[in-house]
Amino acid sequence: MSENRLRRVAEQIKKDIGGIINYEIKDPRVANLTSVTDVSVSKDLRYASVYISIYGTEHEKEETLQTLERASGFIRSEIGRRIRLRYTPEINFRLDNSIEYGAHIENVIKSLKKERGEDVEGEEELIENKEESEEPGANGNEHNDREE
Predict the structure, then answer these.
(1) What is the DSSP string of 91-124?
(2) What predicted TM-score, i.e. pTM, was given to this entire model?
(3) I need a surface site. Which of 13, 85, 113, 117 has the fewest CB within 10 A?
(4) What number of CA atoms fall less than 13 Å from residue 102's CA on the CB side?
(5) Quick one: which H or E segment has residue 18?
(6) Does the pLDDT value for residue 18 go beyond 50?
(7) Sign of the C-alpha dihedral, residues 8, 12, 13, 14?
(8) pLDDT above 80 for 94
């Protein structure tokens, strides 16, 4: 099966599962800030690994993941109704900590810069000023091709 089709099916499953989690599962054990970060499907489209990012305590993450695993039959049936496939994939939920890890790395970098005495806030201003100066006509050297 073509990689393009696998990618399209995975994206559609990601979109649909995100909607199902946010709007159709009414279980209070599912954390409010739960999002689907990625979906990978097997080449025969029989299995789908769904990566979930959950914002909350470790207990809330564990409870949300268990609740989603219990609801995987419902979610699978909804996917089967929404997407026309020969086989509806078996869904396996996995916790994705990449967003939290990225935030942690950013905090570590900021703390290291503070220890060195570097201006963390000033760096953001420099980036904004650089972007403004790169816009056409921002430095006054705009070329006008029209003759008046």
Answers:
(1) EEEEE--HHHHHHHHHHHHHHHHHHHT--HHHHH
(2) 0.70
(3) 117
(4) 5
(5) helix 3-19
(6) yes
(7) positive
(8) yes
Query: How far is residue 92's CA from residue 105's CA, in Å, rounded to a whole number?
Result: 28
Predicted local distance difference test score (pLDDT) of residue 69: 95
In this structure, CATH architecture of domain 3-96: 2-Layer Sandwich (3.30)
Amino acid at 28: P
- Cβ 11 vs Cβ 83: under 8 Å: no
Over range 26-37, report the average pLDDT: 90
132: Cα separation from own chain's centroid: 28
Q: Residue 81 carries which DSSP code? A: H
**What SS3 state is found at 17?**
helix
Q: Which residues pair with 92 in a beta bridge?
A: 49
DSSP 34: E
Local structure of 89: helix, strand or coil:
coil
Q: Which amino acid is at 122?
A: G
Burial 113-143 (b: 16+ CB within 10 A, else e): eeeeeeeeeeeeeeeeeeeeeeeeeeeeeee
Average pLDDT, the chain: 84
The ranges of the chain annotated as CATH 3.30.300.20 are: 3-96
Residue closest to 95 by CA, chosen among 64, 121, 74: 64
